[in-house]
Amino acid sequence: MSKVELITENGEITFGLIQDLVENRLYVSISPDDREFKLLKQDDKIKCIVYDKARILGFDGVILNRIAGDMPIYEILSYENFEIIQRREYVRVKTSLPFIYTDNKQLTKLNFNDYSQVTKAFEKIKEFSKDGIILDLSGGGLKFASEESIQVGMILVFVLELLDDIFMLKGEVVHKNIKTSSNKTVYNYGMKFIEINEKNREKIIRHVFKIMRKNKIK
Description:
Structural class: alpha+beta
Shape: elongated
Distance between the termini: 35 Å
Number of strands: 12
Radius of gyration: 20 Å
Number of helices: 3
Mean pLDDT: 84
Strand content: over 45%
Strand order of the largest sheet: 1-2-3-6-5-4
């Protein structure tokens, strides 16, 4: 069974498992014991994100029915805005988010798959941090602007804040563009995530879809 994420119009999130698919109707079970459980109502409009090993599928849907039981099952009509994303082809969304980063060697050498080392990095990064603006975001990396000149190939540690989620991540600068004006120079960088676990990557992808949804509403 594939995992599915259901996002309401208010941005609330709950997770479930796909039990069946009949034509354009999806049947999803949700455990009431899940700490992120949300009770969905008939006619609620939602964004569905389905994960499997090879790809991610996103689409809009509406709740048709709730089948009562020990574990409720929702009947969802899938109807528009289908997006199939290969895991190596992450969707990018434009944004404008302030963030902090550092190229401090002591921090960039930490193992970011070791939670205790990430915790240490959280405690120290503000001592060495510099400011930047995230211009776009995807599950594979981000584009950001800074007034600092950084070499391509440089490893950075940075803090990414997305609503209630705060990530301490590591990335490699893969390209650089320079924009000059009469009074200052700004550098735009492309950075790919490295040493990122799939749980954090999927959380970032979830936020990308939420930003896309908000942009469409606007």
